[in-house]
Write a structure and sequence with these properties.
The protein has seven helices and 14 strands. It is an alpha/beta fold. The protein has one domain: 4-Layer Sandwich (Purple Acid Phosphatase, chain A, domain 2), CATH 3.60.21.10. The protein is globular and about 45 Å long. The N and C termini lie far apart (46 Å).
C-alpha cells in the first residue's frame, strides 16, 4: 500500500495544474490478437520513398545482460535496416541517475551504434531525476537534450520531447508544447516522454494526462506518442487520431494485460522500429531473437 500512498501524495502536489499519476489501474480483456513472427533482419530493397527510419527504447540503464541483449538486437537490425536516430525515453541510468555509471549503462552497451554516428535523443525518467534533478543528463552531449523539453525535426517529421516527471514545470511546458505544435508545419508529429498516457501495465493509465495532454495531441494532429516507464510493449489503436506506444522493455520486463483500446501488448525484452513515409508510419516491435512480434500502421490523415 506504500505505492498507493506515494501516488496520492504525487496527485495532491500536482492538483493545481491538473497533472498527476495514478498507478496500478491496469485494465484487462481476453480478446488478445496474435501476431505472426517474422525475421526483422531480412533486408528489403532500398525504399526510395522512405523519409526516416528510427527506433525507440526505454528503461534501459541497468548495465545488465538483458540490456546488452536488446542493444545487440538493435545493432543487428541496424546492420540490415540502417537508421541514425534512437528515441531514448527515460530511466537512462538506474537506480538513481548516477552519471558516473554512464559508461556501463550507455556508452558500452550502445558502442556499436554510437561508433556509426547513430544519434540518441533522450528525455528524463523518474529514476534520472534522483541525481541533481537530471540536470547532468540534460547537459550530457550524447543525450542531445536541448533542455528538459525540446523539439527537433527530420525532414517531414517533427519530434517533441517532454519532461513527464512529477516535479516538471507543467504549466509552462504545456504552454510551450501548445505553441510549438501550433507553429509546426510538419505533416508528421511525434511526441515522446517517459510516462504513459494509456497503459495496461503495472501503473495503468494516467487520468490527468488523459484529461490535459491527450486533447492537446488530438487538437494538433499528433499521430504518435512514445513512452516507457512500464517495462513492456503496448500499442494502442488510434485514440482521437493518436497512437500511444509503450517501448519500455529495454532491459527488464513486467507483466502487461490488455484494455479495450489495446491493439497489441507483450512482456518481452524489445525495442520498436519505425519507418516513416509520406502517407504512413510502419511500426515493428522486435525482440532479442531478432523477430518482429507486432506490426502496426499509422496512416496520415489530411486535415
Amino acid at each position: 500500500m506504500k505505492l498507493k500512498r506515494r501516488q496520492f501524495l504525487f496527485l495532491s502536489s500536482l492538483s493545481t495544474i491538473g497533472v498527476g499519476f495514478l498507478g496500478y489501474a491496469a485494465r484487462r480483456s481476453n480478446n488478445a490478437s496474435i501476431a505472426t513472427p517474422s525475421i526483422a533482419t531480412a533486408a528489403t530493397p532500398t525504399k526510395k520513398d522512405l523519409l526516416l527510419r528510427f527506433v525507440s527504447v526505454s528503461d534501459t540503464g541497468t548495465g545488465e545482460k538483458t540490456q546488452y541483449a536488446v542493444a545487440k538486437a538493435m545493432n543487428v537490425y541496424h546492420s540490415q535496416n540502417p537508421y541514425d536516430l534512437v528515441i531514448l525515453a527515460g530511466d537512462n541510468i538506474y537506480t538513481n541517475g548516477e552519471m558516473e555509471k554512464i559508461g556501463e549503462v550507455f556508452e558500452r552497451p550502445y558502442a556499436p551504434l554510437l561508433s556509426q554516428n547513430v544519434k540518441f535523443q533522450a528525455c528524463l525518467g523518474n529514476h534520472d531525476i534522483r541525481n541533481a534533478n537530471g540536470d547532468l543528463q540534460v547537459k550530457y552531449p550524447r543525450f542531445n537534450m536541448n533542455g528538459r523539453h525540446y523539439t527537433f525535426r527530420h525532414n517531414q517529421i517533427q519530434f517533441f520531447a517532454l519532461d513527464t516527471n512529477v516535479n516538471a514545470d507543467w504549466k509552462n511546458q504545456l504552454v510551450w508544447l501548445e505553441q510549438e505544435l501550433s507553429h509546426s508545419d510538419a505533416p508528421w508529429k511525434v511526441v515522446f516522454g517517459h510516462h504513459p498516457v494509456y497503459s495496461s501495465g503495472m501503473y495503468g493509465s494516467n487520468p490527468a494526462f488523459i484529461k490535459t495532454l491527450s486533447p492537446l495531441l488530438a487538437k494538433h494532429n499528433v499521430q504518435l506518442y512514445i513512452n516507457g516507464h512500464e517495462h513492456n510493449y503496448e500499442r494502442t489503436r488510434s485514440i482521437n487520431g493518436t497512437t500511444y506506444l509503450i517501448s519500455g522493455a529495454g532491459a527488464d520486463t513486467r507483466p502487461v494485460g490488455r484494455s479495450d483500446w489495446t491493439e497489441y501488448s507483450a512482456s518481452k525484452l524489445s525495442f520498436a522500429a519505425y519507418e516513416v513515409y509520406s502517407d504512413k508510419i510502419e511500426i515493428s516491435a522486435i525482440g532479442t531473437d531478432n523477430q518482429v512480434f507486432d506490426r502496426g500502421v499509422i496512416s496520415l490523415k489530411l486535415a
